[in-house]
Amino acid sequence: MTYETILVEPRGAVTLITINRPKALNALNSRVLDELIQAFAAFDADESQRCAVLTGNEKAFAAGADIKEMSDQGFASMYASNFFSGWEKVTATRKPWIAAVAGYALGGGCEVAMMADFIIAGENAQFGQPEIKLGVTPGMGGSQRLTRAIGKAKAMEMCLTGRMMDAAEAERSGLVARVVPLESLVEEALKTAETIARMGPLAAIANKEMVNAAFETGLAQGIVFERRLFHGLFGTEDQKEGMAAFVEKRKADWKGR
Ligand code: CO8
């Protein structure tokens, strides 16, 4: 598959996806969206791939939705095309993926980073929802995911003022899992992805589904969901293999079934 706006490189069991529109600070136009949908679907369908990393470049993860592409749209065309609903196909990815963010992650860029299972940030990362400065609001889940990630006070302040949050504040606030030196960002994200890729693939998906359920359900319901998935894994060969490998003091050989 040849892409125009992204690069896709399998690295062992990890797929590295790089947004590649450097002249536009990786602004997310419809071509980027279409290509990311295809790349994530291919990653999800490929049994040899276990985890993905999505990154940009040192200056920008993505500086937002493409303002030039959007500016002439009207309500009818936005509504009729359900503009940006395609991002739900990216969030439907079942296998785990990490956003490795350096530089600007603004507007849609911040929103795409928050679609990842978690974010690892380079020291120069800047997160923000500056849409208010353009007379609009977040439209790819930013107001919802940012509020769940960092709480109402900071999310509201960021959406209402458009201010940027640096990497240190993002880590303090729970938006990012870890901050690493810029020069080792992709390497660190790949290493983390390789760690996940070495786990049983069914357990990885189940862990992801459980943690995500915490955003969608109440505590009691979430705990039942967790317990049922936990019970379900006892019907897999990987559970037998994982526990036998522990007892026999050897590395597990996962089958993904
Ligand atoms: N869209 C299109 N082009 C962009 C974008 C963008 N979001 N961001 C930067 N670019 C382009 C610039 O136009 C410029 O192009 P050119 O060289 O042809 O003039 C090039 O990238 C380099 O940008 P700058 O010269 O501005 O670089 P600076 O280093 O001076 O500034 C900034 C960097 C501060 C990041 C600045 O570019 C900026 O403010 N960008 C816009 C940030 C922004 O407002 N993002 C939010 C966009 S709106 C959004 O994401 C809404 C999502 C939800 C919509 C839902 C609809 C349903």
TrEMBL record:
Record-level Gene Ontology MF annotations: enoyl-CoA hydratase activity
EC class of the enzyme, as a word: lyase
SUPFAM superfamilies to which the protein is assigned, alphabetical: ClpP/crotonase
EC number: 4.2.1.17
Record-linked Pfam families: ECH_1
Signal peptide coordinates: none
PANTHER family noted in UniProt: ENOYL-COA HYDRATASE, MITOCHONDRIAL, ENOYL-COA HYDRATASE-RELATED
Residue stretches in coiled coil: none
Family: Belongs to the enoyl-CoA hydratase/isomerase family.
Record keywords: Lyase
Name of this chain's protein: Enoyl-CoA hydratase
